[in-house]
Amino acid sequence: MQKILSKSSSHSDYLNEYTEIDIELISSRETEQETVLALLAAFGFHGFREESNRIFAYIATRDFSSEDFEGYLKQYRLNEKIKSFRSKIIPEQNWNEIWEKDYSPVQISDKCLIRAPFHLPPKGEGYDIIISPKMSFGTAHHETTRLMLKSILSVKWEKARVLDLGCGTGILAILAEKMGAGKVIAMDNDSWAWKNATENISLNNCRNIKAVHGLLETLEEELFDSIFANINLNILLQEMPNICNCLTDKGTVIFSGFYLDDLEILDQSASQEGLTLITKETLNSWTVGVYRKGH
User: Fold this and answer.
1) Of 31, 38, 149, 292, which alpha carbon lies 20 to 30 A from 55's?
2) Cα separation values, 51 from 23, 85, 142, 146, Å
3) Do β-strands 286-293 and 275-283 pair in parallel, antiparallel, or remain unpaired?
4) 3-state class of 280 per DSSP?
5) Percent of the chain beyond pLDDT 70?
6) Which of 109-118, 130-139, 212-221 has the least mean pLDDT?
7) Quick one: average pLDDT of 207-231?
């Protein structure tokens, strides 16, 4: 995507800015909202708020171009579902206030509760994960994060070495440690996400997670027993060789961030690197696939 830097903003300010798109939909039907939300997430928006027939979507300003966005709306005929939209810059310090307006806890089966610091802790058993989301992806409100969490909850992680690639808020890494993982790397090339993951790791009193800011090819670590990769399809395909090179024999990768229609493309790429699909699950067309290295 084209990157635009306002003449009135310094480079550091620009890196910390997010753009809010206020979208008014023609219809308030739930199916229409789900379609628009899915396509906005595919474009690169990280956070969402919903009100009746309106959607508020958030994206890093450095990753947003109004020209690209308008072209995307036409390409996927979203302009037929949207009555109007307008954008504005959201400074970092206002983000928590925005989330507190419409951020609800998320329950994953009966095993895990995802909540913000301003929510009361759960009653009873289960994993309690505190997330201060800010602008990072990974609040469990999106289908891909819920699918990833459900997949992680179905596995035993005692002493496992885990890499959470494109960690966002760090939510997946945090759950892995709470389930007994011995060593976890939470990695993201976005400085905002890395800072947010670091904060959330501390909020959850995690001691076995190392937050890393950078790209996978720069990571100097031993092999991992499992890798979590909830990223968009193009990046998954691009990073497939690097992901497999970081995986132990018989190790597993949990992929998400793509639609069911794209599973065949992902499967072909994974197979070329020696990965075999073990299981998959779909939620509102979003899909998670669990792969094992070797046969």
Assistant:
1) 149
2) 10, 14, 16, 21
3) antiparallel
4) strand
5) 87
6) 130-139
7) 90
Sign of CA dihedral 261, 82, 57, 17: positive
The residues near 230 (Cβ < 8 Å, ≥ 6 apart) are 137, 138, 144, 145, 148, 166, 168, 172, 254, 255, 256, 257
pLDDT single digits (tens) 162-195: 999 999 899 999 999 999 999 999 999 888 788 8
Torsion angle, alpha carbons of 84, 23, 92, 209, to 10: -150
**What domains appear along the chain, each with residue ranges and CATH number?**
11-98 (3.30.70.980), 138-293 (3.40.50.150)
Contacts of 195 (CB under 8 A, 6+ apart): none
Overall pTM surpassing 0.90 (yes/no)? no
How many C-beta neighbours within 10 Å does residue 209 have? 25
Q: What angle do CA 129, 134, 140 make, to 5 degrees?
A: 40
Are 136 and 197 within 8 A, CB to CB? yes
Q: Give the pLDDT confidence score for residue 61 in this predicted structure.
A: 86
Q: Is the pLDDT of residue 241 over 90?
A: yes
Angle between helices 191-203 and 171-178 (to 10 degrees): 30
Angle subtended by helix axes 171-178 and 143-153, to nearest 10: 20
- How far from 92 is each of 96, 107, 193, 277, CA to CA, in Å? 8, 27, 12, 40
pLDDT tens, 34-71?
778 878 878 888 677 777 788 888 888 888 888 999 89
